[in-house]
Structures are given as structure tokens and as C-alpha cells.
Amino acid sequence: DDGYTFTIVSSNEQSWQFEVKNLTERDEWITGIQEQIMQSLQSAPSRKNTLDDVNSEIAIVRTLRKVNGNFKCVDCRSENPDWASLNLGTLMCIECSGLHRNLGAHISRVRSLTLDSWPAINLSVMSAIGNHTANKVWEANFHNHTKIDSKSSREDKEKFIRAKYEQKLFLAPLPDSKTSLSTQLIKAVLKNDLQHFLRVLAYCTPDDINKKYKLNDSRTALHFSCAVANPVMAQLLIWNNIDTTLQDSHGYTANDYARAANSDECIEVLVSNDSSQETSTAKTLYLTKELFVTSNKERDRNHSSIV
């Protein structure tokens, strides 16, 4: 008997691997470790020391649980979930949050509703997506599969979560197989179709996300997201490894587009992700005129074809 192994992954991506004799012993260790972590977190000095901080925490929890589907864990349907996946835009229970951490931050960025800080853009992403919308993407092709619930074993939960997000077994096929993923992503931005944007994004590699729009047009999906002042899509692209420094055919970055669009939210997203390129007033004024001539034409045609 080779025994059973499990891995603990910390918030800074350090990992420790353990080996035990059987599944029962493994589950006992995992439960004990989780309980110890929660006790340590709850006994640690809180960052919320004032009444305003406490009220802010309560407001965050209430706001996010009001989003469609968020009253239950996105995966096992346990009630009152208090953990989140930022890039998936979902709420989950503590046990599923541990399994999401095991996937790695490149798949699921796990945060606590009550123990972590919540910048405005993170709240915006979470409010825009939610469990209902996320599952319309990640469980769209769920036919003939069995959904886990709160009473499912940890092993079954892990298999399900890996199949859902790592192997992507339940994604629906994209209807347009002839158009490149990068172009489909840009179309979704211009149509402001978040659900389709998430579906295409799930299929994209970093290379797909960073591809330019056309042979003679070097804009990326991030340029367009900033041009139409959509900070949620901009943040999701950044979390999926889009290069914020890429320039269009005239040398303009997404930061320039955000400034031309007067989108403080997009600027904040870019600056917080180390994209604080200087933009001169003259450059911004010129870009403003060019930007809205070209981008509005694209948006006006988005119900037909923009390729």
C-alpha cells in the first residue's frame, strides 16, 4: 500500500505534502488543519478595529450574498458561503475554498469575505458575475453528470471541482468555431456580453488573450475594454495574464485608452496592476478623437460582423 497524499497550499503559494495510511486518516488530518487555521485567524488581532470597519464587513457580505445564486456555495450548495473566488466571481463554502486553493491562483483566486480587504474593483467583479452566471458558463454542458452537495465526501468534491475548473469538462462548446478566440473576446467586449466574455475567456490561453485584433490593427481586448470604459472586463483580462503594456498600431497602450475615455475605474485597475505609463495631455487629446471615431464604429457594427 503506497498510502494517500494531500497537499496544503498557503495564500502565498507555498505548499507542503503529507502522506497517510488511508482516506479516513487523511480526512481527519485535513479537518484538523482547517479547524486550526480558522482558530488562528479568528484569534489573531483583527484589522477591523472600528465600528465603521465592522459595518463595512457586514455590508460587503450582505451585498455579495444578494447577487443571483450567491446564497449557496457555487459548487456544493452549502448555505451562507463566506469565501470567494475573485476571478471566477463566485462565493463558496470553506471546504470548497480549500479545494479551489489547491487548483492554484492561476485558476481560482480565493479570498475571505470577512478576513481579507476588498478593493472596489474586486467588489465590482464579484457583483457583476455571481454564482448563477458563473454556473451558466462552467456547468453549461453538465448533462448526465452528478452534482455534488454539502454532504458529498471531500474526495468527490475535489474530483468535481477539478473536472469543472481544471479540466473544463462542463463548458459548452463555442458556437463560432471559425473566428479566432481573440476576436470573439473582443466582440464580447464590444457587445458588453459578460456571460459570453466569460465563456470565451475560459477557453483562451494567454497567447489567445494577447493576440492583436487584426493584421493591421494591434489593439487587444484590453484596449477595447478601456475604450468602452469596462473596468470589470479589464480586470478579468489582467487576472488572465493579458500584457498591460502592449501598444496599438499608433503606440497607444490600454492606459492611454482609459484616459481618453475618462474612465477613472479603468485607470485605477491598470495602475494597481503596475501599468502606470505616463500619458501627455497632447497625446490624450489626439487619442480621444481617434479612439471614439474607430471604437464607436466597431460598436455600431457589433451585431453584424466586426472582422
TrEMBL record:
<dbReference type="InterPro" id="IPR038508">
    <property type="entry name" value="ArfGAP_dom_sf"/>
</dbReference>
<dbReference type="InterPro" id="IPR036770">
    <property type="entry name" value="Ankyrin_rpt-contain_sf"/>
</dbReference>
<keyword id="KW-0862">Zinc</keyword>
<dbReference type="GO" id="GO:0008270">
    <property type="term" value="F:zinc ion binding"/>
</dbReference>
<comment type="similarity">
    <text>Belongs to the centaurin gamma-like family.</text>
</comment>
<dbReference type="InterPro" id="IPR037278">
    <property type="entry name" value="ARFGAP/RecO"/>
</dbReference>
<protein>
    <recommendedName>
        <fullName>Arf-GAP domain-containing protein</fullName>
    </recommendedName>
</protein>
<dbReference type="Pfam" id="PF01412">
    <property type="entry name" value="ArfGap"/>
</dbReference>
<keyword id="KW-0040">ANK repeat</keyword>
<feature type="domain" description="Arf-GAP">
    <location>
        <begin position="58"/>
        <end position="178"/>
    </location>
</feature>
<feature type="domain" description="PH">
    <location>
        <begin position="1"/>
        <end position="38"/>
    </location>
</feature>
<keyword id="KW-0863">Zinc-finger</keyword>
<dbReference type="InterPro" id="IPR002110">
    <property type="entry name" value="Ankyrin_rpt"/>
</dbReference>
<keyword id="KW-0343">GTPase activation</keyword>
<dbReference type="InterPro" id="IPR001849">
    <property type="entry name" value="PH_domain"/>
</dbReference>
<dbReference type="InterPro" id="IPR001164">
    <property type="entry name" value="ArfGAP_dom"/>
</dbReference>
<keyword id="KW-0479">Metal-binding</keyword>
<dbReference type="InterPro" id="IPR051282">
    <property type="entry name" value="Arf-GAP_GTPase_ANK_PH"/>
</dbReference>
<dbReference type="Pfam" id="PF12796">
    <property type="entry name" value="Ank_2"/>
</dbReference>
<dbReference type="GO" id="GO:0005096">
    <property type="term" value="F:GTPase activator activity"/>
</dbReference>
<dbReference type="InterPro" id="IPR011993">
    <property type="entry name" value="PH-like_dom_sf"/>
</dbReference>
